User: Fold this.
Amino acid sequence: MVEDAKYITVTDDTFEAEVLQSDQPVLVDFWAAWCGPCKIIEPLIVELAEDFEGRAKLAKLDVDHNPTVAMNFGVRSIPTLLFFKDGRVVDQLIGAASKKTLSEKLENLVAETV
Amino acid sequence: MVDVDFTLAERRNVVIIGSGPAGLTAALYAARANLEPLILQGPEPGGQLITTTDVENFPGFPDGIMGPEMMIKFEEQAVRFGADLRYGIVTEVDLSESPFKLVIDEEKPILAKTIIVSTGASAKYLGIENEKRLLGHGVSSCATCDGAFFKDQEVAVVGGGDTAMEEALFLTRFASKVYVIHRRSELRASKIMQERAKKEDKIEFIWDSTVEDVLGEKEVESVQLKNTQTGETSTLPVQGLFLAIGHTPNTSVFKDFLDMDDLGYLVTQADSTYSNIDGVFVSGDAQDRVYRQAVTAAGTGCMAAMDAERWLAERGS
Assistant:
């Protein structure tokens, strides 16, 4: 874990405010401690949070401790990455993905926002 | 190749593609030979074992070991001798001459004097439209990743091998009922796994059946089955469908350069890990359509590193 990580950790309680009401596009990484493939995504989220600072938010949500949000969005597999904009899911990726793929999707969302 | 400039590319003696038992064993041997190997971990670092539970057939662990834990040990051992592990997926190659050209994540160029391919294999899917649509919403190829989402629900596992038995047994921890759908009337799984699965009350076998379709609006609600003997179709209500119908070698990125068989497995020269291209060595499940064990993958990974080391030595580098 990077100490001054720029991504945010969201929970069932903060999801509404941090994600749904966000002015910026948000990429939420649904993960859990027991999930091997989730560990692949972790460093990408850290890097992307840096790259997109001030333009898009990167968030992590632990499905073990926050089952409500995961259930509401039909997350039944992890890692799942959901892209939010204006309170809605606009894109999704299931399983591991390359940084480039994530970066391009975020760039597109940021471009649409401006 | 895509517009990637190789003039200032990072140069390596050995680049190992993949980080399962084959890749990490190759990394260990190459690092101990002072070749300073770079390991590109690929889309599934640690390989297939990352998504398994107990590994009971790897020698040296009399009480078994968890797959992810074993792969962390593999990693630590390789890193201890200087292996350079990096996240990254090889998206393009040019193997026409050494140094070989590799493009990582569609942007980063690397030049490699030798390459060890240990890209392994990935779970196979049925290949039907609705399966793709519902992937992550009830369709899964990894019980250990997704099983916990199916607490007190009914699920189905497709397949008849050891992986199918392991997935089914794992799912009994969460699901109220686990159907195992198999297209034949007997299992391919090892005797010990068959016995365990057959003893488990929550597991029910559906023989001689194939999955024709997966149904559900936003999440899996049922699967459509077809009996291979009678041709009859039926609907089985389940919330989850786990696929364990085998694996496909991850070799498509090499298709313009490396010889492969009809199923995509890379072809090696007898008693070696030499591919058809001088300086490119292949190991692990990517070249093994017969055994596909962690221990055999590790064995061929070791062979590949030794072959690469000799290849470099003969050329004075």
